[in-house]
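Contributing new records

If you add data, match the layout below exactly. Sequence lines come first and carry their own label; structure lines follow with theirs. Keep one chain per record. Anything else will be rejected by the validation script.
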Amino acid sequence: MKAPGNVHGRVELDGKPVTYFGIAYTQSVAAPFVNGAIGVRDPNGMFNVRIPPGHWDIVIAAPDAARREFLGIDVGASFDFGTLSLEHGHVVSGTVRDAAGAPLAGVSVAVGAIYGFDPPGELDGLIRGVIATRTDEDGRYTLRGLSRTLIGRHNTTIGATASDGRATVPVRVDPGTDSQVDLTVVATGGIEVIVDGGRTRFVTAATRTGWLLAQNIDGVYRFEHVPEGTYTIAADGPARASTTATVHAGAVETITLTLPALSPVAVDVFSTHGNCSVVELRSDDGSVVANTRCDGRHATFPSVAPGDYQACVDTLPCSWIDVDTRGPQQFDVPR
């Protein structure tokens, strides 16, 4: 039997109900979304969904509207958002052509931090900050709903991929304003990146005009449909390593990056709910990296490798912490 909804409210745009939208929850919008969008269809814009009790960042997104983020929401047995107003956001439009200048119909165009592969579905893509469409018979496209809440908000990239694998060099766009960007598809190749020596948040391939984000497939970071040219390949985690790679049409370039070793640092975790019993640090896959007993309301970890962790205090919801290389650090949890 389906559990009854505990999070409810109403979504509107221009004072009218939004009849189709998605809701998602995550430990942090800065981390990957492990929960897909909860799709809602309602003629009155009402939602009544089930979200596990905890401390969550919640995102609401709808086609042709700017997504909204709600940070640090304490969800319990019942949470009422009331009426949530979405905004239209900004528009990017243009024409996609081939190398000879002819407009191309039916080409996939996407804007967002994970341009380079199709999002798993419309609502999941919008939740993650990806807006996608296809060109019309004249090669024109229009993408609506851009805003600075797009993931990758400071380096939002647009690009196009044709059905035969031709693609465009990535181009940066400003999600905070309307813009026109014409694109040209060219022949492509691929890049495979193997990262050794440490935890990796993401791998990028950058040119002077924009960047691509790799897919992590079984531990290998892959870029597909990459236009010919030279790229700076960077692996970012607590440490960073980079090199250059040249892509040739129809070929796959394989490179290896080795992250430098980082010295561990001391970390103190303070419970914002008072005295605690034990604190665990977990990796992004949920496995326990370290645990220690509390001394009053705090726990000390004398040696923690820099990186992103879930800090879990007793039975309270876990919170993400970012341990860097600066030396001893303190975190209040839950945040």
